[in-house]
Design brief:
binds magnesium ion, globular, 12 helices, binds thiamine diphosphate, 44% helix, single chain, alpha/beta, 5-stranded parallel beta sheet
Length: 358
C-alpha cells in the first residue's frame, strides 16, 4: 500500500503537497518535538538512577503526536495511548505537572494513582488513558457519538499502536464509529513492535490500513516520521469529521526507537541493523532540515531551544524531588462526594497508626 509523504528523509519538500502553516506554528511544532525527545532522555536517566520508578519514552514518534495536535482545534478531544505526551504540552500542560507526576509527590496532579506516564488533563481535553490496550478506542467512539448527539463542534482523535489493532476493542470501536458515523479519527501509530512482538506476527493483513476497508471507513497510510504528512492527514480527517462525514483511519508508519518502557530491553529481541536504518529517518532531524532550508530557523536557534528546555527541566526536577509524597488522606478522596462511613473509619484507623509511628 502507498505511503503518503511530503518531506523526504533529507527534509526535501514535495511542494505540491506542502501545507500552508504559519511560520510561528512551524517553529512551535519543532520546539515541542525537541521537548518530547529531551523529556525522554531525562525520564530514562532518572529511572536508571533509581530516582523515579518508571518511564515511557516516545523517541522516534515525535512527528505523529505533534503533527496531529497542531492540526486540531483546542476544543477537540484527545484520547491518547501512552506515547503522546507532547500533545498535552502543546496545549499548555505545565511541564512541572509531568515532573511532579514522575516523582509521585504531593503536587502530582494524578496524586500517585496512575502508572507514571499514564496521565490526563481534563482542562486540555487530553483524556486519562487506561493501561489495558485498546480501551481508549471504544471510549473515543462513544465520546464521538456524544459530540454528535449534542451537536457539538468537537471531534475526537484516538491513538493506539499496531498491537492494539488485534484487540477486540479495536473492532468494537471501529465498527461503532463507522455505523454511527461518529466524528472520530482512528490514529494508529504503527511503530513496528508491540513490546517484543514484531508487526509480521501481529497480523495477516499486508498493511494495517487495509483493515479500515472492512469497516467501511476511509483509510490513509502515511509516513509517520514526516510531520507535514501527519499534519495534512489529520487536518483532512478533521474536516471530514466536522462536516458529519464520520471517521477516518490513519496508519502512520513510524518506529519505536527506544525500549517499550524503562522495564524493557529491546537488544534481546530486536536486530541492531533495524534501529540503525530507522535512525536515518529521524523525524526531528528531517523537520529541522526543512525549516533550515526555508530559512525559518537557524542551528543556533535550535541549540537555544534545546538548552533553555534543558535548564528549565533540570530546575523543575530539583524542585520536584524535594516534595513529599501525597498525603495519606488522598487515598480516601475523589471517589465519593460525601465520604461513606466505612472509608471515614478506615482513614481514622490509618491516621491513628501513623501517629503511633511518628
Ligand atoms: C489487554 C492488554 N494486554 C496486554 C497488555 C500488556 N501490554 C502493554 S503495552 C503492550 C504492547 C502494545 O503494543 P502497541 O499497541 O503496538 O503499542 P506500542 O507500545 O508499540 O506503542 C502490551 C502487550 C496490556 N496492557 N493490555
Ligand atoms: Mg507498536
Amino acid at each position: 500500500m502507498n505511503l503518503m509523504q511530503i518531506l523526504d528523509s533529507s527534509g526535501k519538500v514535495n511542494s505540491e503537497l506542502e501545507p500552508d502553516i504559519p511560520e510561528k506554528e512551524l517553529v512551535k511544532m519543532l520546539q515541542y518535538m525537541i521537548l518530547v525527545r529531551l523529556l525522554d532522555e531525562k525520564g530514562m536517566r532518572l529511572q536508571r538512577q533509581g530516582r523515579i520508578s518508571f518511564s515511557i519514552p516516545s523517541t522516534g514518534q515525535e512527528a505523529t503526536q505533534i503533527g496531529a495536535v497542531a492540526a486540531l482545534n483546542p476544543e477537540d478531544w484527545i484520547f491518547p495511548a501512552y506515547r503522546e505526551p507532547g500533545m498535552a504540552f502543546y496545549r499548555g500542560l505545565p511541564l512541572f505537572d509531568l515532573i511532579n507526576h514522575w516523582f509521585v509527590n504531593e503536587e502530582d496532579p494524578q496524586k500517585g494513582r496512575r502508572l507514571p506516564g499514564l496521565f490526563g488533563s481534563k482542562e486540555h481535553r487530553y483524556v486519562n488513558p487506561s493501561a489495558p490496550i485498546g480501551t481508549q478506542i471504544i471510549q473515543a467512539a462513544g465520546a464521538g457519538f456524544a459530540n454528535k448527539f449534542l451537536s457539538e463542534k468537537a471531534v475526537n482523535i484516538v491513538f493506539f499502536g499496531d498491537g492494539a489493532t488485534s484487540s477486540s476493542d479495536f473492532h468494537a470501536g471501529m465498527n461503532f464509529g463507522a455505523v454511527f458515523k461518529t466524528p472520530t479519527i482512528f490514529f494508529c501509530q504503527n511503530n513496528q513492535w508491540a513490546i517484543s512482538v514484531p508487526l509480521s506476527k501481529q497480523t495477516g493483513a499486508s498493511s494495517l490500513v487495509d483493515k479500515a476497508l472492512g469497516y467501511g471507513i476511509p483509510g490513509i497510510r502515511i509516513d509517520g516520521n514526516d510531520i507535514l504528512a501527519v499534519y495534512t492527514a489529520v487536518k483532512d480527517a478533521v474536516k471530514q469529521a466536522r462536516m458529519g462525514n464520520g471517521p477516518t483511519f490513519i496508519e502512520a508508519v513510524t518506529y519505536r526507537a527506544g525500549p517499550h518502557t524503562s522495564s524493557d530491553d529491546p537488544t534481546r529481541y530486536r536486530p541492531k541493523k533495524e534501529l540503525a536504518t530507522w535512525q536515518k529517518l529521524d523525524p526531528i532531524k528531517r523537520f529541522e532540515n526543512y525549516l533550515l532550508k526555508k530559512g525559518i530557523i537557524s542551528d543556533n536557534r535550535v541549540e537555544e531551544i534545546r538548552s533553555s528546555y534543558d535548564t528549565e527541566i533540570n530546575e523543575l526536577i530539583t524542585k520536584a524531588e524535594k516534595l513529599p509524597p501525597p498525603s495519606l488522606e488522598t487515598l480516601f478522596t475523589d471517589v465519593y462526594s460525601d465520604q461513606p462511613w466505612h472509608l471515614r473509619e478506615q482513614f481514622e484507623e490509618l491516621s491513628a497508626l501513623q501517629r503511633m509511628n511518628d
